[in-house]
Amino acid sequence: MIDLYSVTGPSAALYYFTGKIPRRAPCATQDDSQEDIPQSQAFWGILSMALFGVALTVLMWSTLASCVVVLGHLPTLFVNGIALTVGGLLGLPWARDWRMPPLLAVVGSACMFAYHVVYFYALQLGDPVGVSLIHYLWPILIVLLSPVFTRDVRVSCRHLVPPAIGFAGAILACFASWGTASGSGAGSTTLGISHAGIAATCVAYALALLSAFAWAAYSLLGTRYRQVPSHSVGLFCLSAGLGCLALYFSRSSWPHVTMTDASVLMYMGLGPMGGAFYLWDFAMKRGDPRKTAVLSYAIPVLSTLFLSVYLHVPMSAMLWAGALLVTVSVAMASRSHTRPGD
Fold first, then answer.
1. How many domains does the chain have?
2. Mean of pLDDT over the chain
3. Domain assignment of residue 158, given as a range
4. Residue 286 and residue 104: Cα distance in Å, rounded?
């Protein structure tokens, strides 16, 4: 079993890509100056890499909404299938190392598939603001469920305050995003609560909650299998992508795809629906899941910001207020320098 907190620097990067750690050359002397880096320094080194990975992931995921707007004329299952398949192909060079327990392979692939299909279907079925708010419960669920998946992690009140503030910021950002899309006409065809009906709205909200649990469970599942290299996520992406394509082509044919569409699909596969998943898995396995969850609340704020720029819509005061709350929550989480077990 690899010591998770003793892998840092170039060794950590090598472990991320190959799952292997280079052996140290034996020391010629027993001089104390030749001792390894202290455990605490190694821990903070790997934690810094994990936080950098989740920050890059948040940035990529924040562009996903703009990509969805660009590809709004293409079927959702087709977009998900192509993007996830491209993301899965990123890990294909290391396919021989996709060795993992069968349960992990099945559950991981199922969660990846269910999350995308259920969440996007919920957005089509119900009110986008309500669906988004319920969906963004997943960072709080990660904090609450961390002790269930990780034995050496405990949750106290000080761990719940930052995600609560971040969720408040996400609420404002979601409403600002809805106003941005509505103001540009992008959301004019979306069904609201009054049009969808009570039954359809309840189903949409239930699906949104299911997607939140699916992503929280998927994110925390990796903490139980830290020895499995992060590039094994390619198996989950590839399985989910092929599943989406099989479901789509069982009912429809190949849609018309322009060069712009193909470029955006390729970016989605390499970025928010591909490379981001590898970095996210690395951050969840090597970092503190409680702190990682809080950082995720920057996604709706940055997503609305990118939408405003793309649609040429002025940013509202509600968005700035949401950004302020998310910044406060991230600052509070960053000050709680804890390692698993605290």
1. 1
2. 76
3. 59-335
4. 18
| Confidence band, pLDDT 50/70/90 cuts, at residue 153 | low
Q: Is 31 among the domain residues?
A: no
The encoded tokens of residue 246 equal 């099989």
DSSP 34: G
Residue 143 phi/psi, 5-degree rounding, is -65, -45
Tell me whether residue 29 is in a domain. no
What is the maximum alpha-carbon separation in the chain? 77
Residue that is written with structure tokens 């060069």 in the block: 259
Model confidence pLDDT, tens digit, residues 243-256: 999 999 999 999 99
324 exposure class (CB count in 10 Å sphere: 0-12, 13-18, 19+):
middle
- Dihedrals phi, psi of 150, to nearest 5 degrees: -125, 115
Region of 142 on the Ramachandran plot (φ > 0 left; ψ -120 to 50 alpha; else beta): alpha
Residue 19: inside a domain: no
Burial 20-31, CB ≥16 within 10 A → b, else e: eeeeeeeeeeee
Q: At what angle do helices 102-125 and 233-249 cross, to 10 degrees?
A: 50
Q: How far apart are CA 54 and CA 18, in angstroms?
A: 20
Which pair of structure tokens corresponds to residue 184? 């540009």
Length of the chain as a residue count: 342
How does pLDDT run across 101-125, given as a tens digit for each residue? 898 999 999 999 999 989 888 877 8
> Tokens at residue 145, please?
């469920």
Place of tokens 């010629």: 28
Q: How many CB atoms lie within 10 A of CB 341?
A: 9
**Statement: residue 185 has pLDDT above 60:** no
- Contact between 143 and 163 under an 8 Å Cβ cutoff? The reply is yes
Q: Which two tokens stand for residue 229?
A: 């290299």
Contact 140, 167 (CB under 8 A): yes
- Whether 24 maps to a domain, the answer reads no
